Amino acid sequence: MVNQTPHIRQLILERLYTEKRRPVSGVQLSDLTGISRVAIWKHMHALKKNGLPIESSPKGYFLSDRENLILPACFDPPLADRIHYFPQVTTTMDKARELARKGAPHLSCVVAEHQTKGRGRLNRRWASDPGGLWITLILTPDAPPGLAYLYNFAASLSLSLTLDALFGLDTRVKWPNDLLLEGKKLAGLLSEIETRADMIRYLLVGIGINVNNDPSSTAFEAISISQALGRPVSRKEILAQFIQKFSDRIRHLDAAGIMAAWKQRTSTIGTRVRVETRHQIIEGLATDVDEAGTLWVKDAGHQMHKIIYGDCFHA
Question: Which runs of E-coded beta strand occur in the chain?
């Protein structure tokens, strides 16, 4: 039996969004969804728990903060048609994989209010509480697997430029795929690829951004945009402008241009680092990131290490 919960909750939220601050009664929502008023109340309780700004009044329910919503109805076409919204998922990556295998078009985007099993690199847990922006891009480029890394670097670069343009935040990209603000983790990226013959079937780029949430309970030192600015900001605006910048950046894939622009915004090059791979730990001075996305590290004995994949920590 198909789980109707995500569909029902999206219907409820879209109706509340359309009515702006005018209350929508439980009876109206019951008629819309075909479920009882008691069931509507239970959905409202769950949506509030997931961080949705839903308020109650004697006349019904309404949204107190429409700008913080990321429903498809909040965006203009053609982006609205590519947004797949879920109040709660295990991970947006899991849902995006499912949609990609069903033929979701290029530059589709899965967004969620909350992930119950959010994860980062090397399968580390990623806290993804309500208020953050948890997304996975579905890409179906006409490109070989060897170029997949460019989309990851283009994504972190585009996000950094977006946050600078919107809020004047001096975010720095950290190899291979984090964004730092004031030396603290602001965002992380994670990718997954499936190939067919010698071409990319789909590439998933999962992105977690601390926006209006409080990430202070995480094991690593982290910060959110609202903490840095002292006020909440629009997740809708961040998502729309990021996807536009990213789409423009990858329209004509240029390895030299992407990597040169990325290097202009990185804090990794010239910093002492510790890089953990699956087989070893390398410490030293990060001297370069080349056009292939490879990190070069000079250790204490002046030996150069070529690192293709790993977790990087700034000393």
Answer: 54-57, 60-63, 83-89, 108-115, 133-139, 172-174, 178-181, 184-196, 199-209, 272-276, 281-289, 295-298, 304-307, 311-314
Query: Looking at the whole model, is its pTM more than 0.85?
Result: yes
Domains and CATH numbers, the chain: 5-64 (1.10.10.10), 72-264 (3.30.930.10), 272-314 (2.30.30.100)
Cα 268 to Cα 33, 108, 173, 178, 263: the distances in Å are 51, 31, 8, 10, 9
Maximum pairwise Cα distance, the chain:
74
- Which of 71-80, 184-193, 237-246 is predicted least confidently? 71-80
122 pLDDT higher than 70:
no
Taking residues 269-279, what's their average pLDDT?
94
Distances (CA, A) of 207 to 28, 58, 184: 36, 39, 16
Tokens 């670069």, residue located: 157
